[in-house]
Specification:
The chain has an eight-stranded mixed beta sheet, covered by helices on one side. A hairpin with a 4-residue loop joins strand 7 and strand 8. The protein has a domain of 199 residues. The chain is rod-shaped and about 165 Å long. It has 330 residues and is of the alpha+beta class. It contains nine helices and ten strands. It comes from Sandaracinus amylolyticus. InterPro entries: MepK (IPR010275), Zn_M74/Hedgehog-like (IPR009045). This is Outer membrane protein, OmpA/MotB family. Keywords: Signal. Pfam families: Peptidase_M15_2.
Length: 330
């Protein structure tokens, strides 16, 4: 400290004479030594030793803030999706491929073709051909190889006067009237259908138009059945002794023939040489047979075309037939 003061006095004395007289250097030493470390501020009432110890003790750092760690939520398991199945539409009953035998006044008649067998009421209580039985018999007499139609197909063709299903022709209702007479003459005997609709028949055959059936009666002789159907008016009757069956068709006049050809042979029909109808009826009385019509001139004598007449009659009958209702359900 004395060295500092000597240096200051020397500087003051060494100043040049031109120095201003009013410049005065004053140095005052501090009254007390300034502490190098600030004294701690002690609270009122606390001793200096306690305060010094408190100051010497490093402050305890505050604890770190507690961070709440929330665990992640567990993975959400998707709930199983419940498939809501809409309720099924109301089921519409479908008719059978072959309609069942309707309940009517006449007794049912059994028809057989191969493994198929049906019992049908041919005429209703008013004596008219039954529409449902006509459909069933048409299906039974379908062409060889034609599949059995499904119910929807029968319903779709219910009002068609020509077809009961694709490739299955509707039979003429006059065949049901003739079959009813045969069934009444041979009760309890099944009628076997040999053939009906035949698309491969010769041109002009009534098998092409649903007008003819080839048949036999189970348990009855061929001659007895032929004797009965030979009395039918407006009917074509053909006897096939080699095949053991009869041909029956609907036409405008009675026509008879005998075909001696065997299976696979070309036809050899010859007109039937039979006694007059009246003599035949007297010799073989049949109470159940219909009464013969009065004699009338032949078509050849009148100059009529039988084929043209039957075609026109068929079209007229088809036009007059009522609309067929869908087959009944089982």
């Amino acid at each position: 400290m004395l060295r500092v003061r000597s240096i200051a006095l020397f500087v003051a004395l060494a100043l040049p004479s031109i120095a201003r007289a009013d410049v005065t250097v004053i140095y005052a030493a501090p009254s007390e030594r300034a502490p190098l470390v600030a004294r701690p501020v002690c609270p009122v009432g606390m001793s200096e030793s306690a305060c010094a110890r408190a100051a010497a003790t490093p402050p305890t750092p505050p604890p770190p803030p507690r961070i709440a760690i929330t665990p992640p939520p567990p993975p959400r398991t998707p709930e199983p999706r419940v498939a809501i199945t809409p309720p099924p539409p109301p089921r519409t009953p479908q008719p059978a491929a072959l309609p069942p035998a309707p309940s009517a006044c006449a007794a049912p008649v059994t028809f057989v073709r191969g493994s198929e067998r049906r019992s049908l009421v041919l005429l209703d209580c008013d004596g008219r051909p039954h529409p449902e039985s006509l459909v069933a018999l048409s299906v039974l007499a379908r062409p060889p190889g034609a599949p059995l139609p499904d119910p929807a197909t029968l319903v779709a063709h219910a009002s068609d006067p020509t077809w009961v299903a694709p490739s299955i022709r509707r039979l003429h209702p006059g065949l049901l009237e003739r079959l009813r007479v045969i069934a009444d003459r041979f009760p309890g005997h099944a009628i076997e259908i040999v053939s009906g609709d035949r698309p491969d028949a010769r041109p002009g055959s009534r098998h092409l138009h649903g007008l003819a059936l080839d048949l036999r009666v189970s348990g009855a002789s061929l001659d007895a059945v032929h004797e009965l159907v030979s009395r039918f008016d407006r009917t074509g009757v053909g006897l096939y002794p080699a095949g053991g069956f009869l041909h029956l068709d609907v036409r405008t006049r009675a026509t008879r023939w005998v075909d001696a050809s065997g299976p696979g042979e070309p036809p050899r029909p010859t007109p039937e040489d039979a006694p007059p109808r009246a003599a035949r009826i007297r010799r073989v009385p049949t109470p159940d047979a219909p009464a013969p019509p009065p004699p009338r001139p032949s078509d050849d004598e009148l100059g009529l075309d039988a084929d043209a007449i039957v075609d026109a009659l068929t079209r007229e009958l088809d036009a007059r037939m009522p609309t067929l209702a869908p087959p009944r359900l089982r």
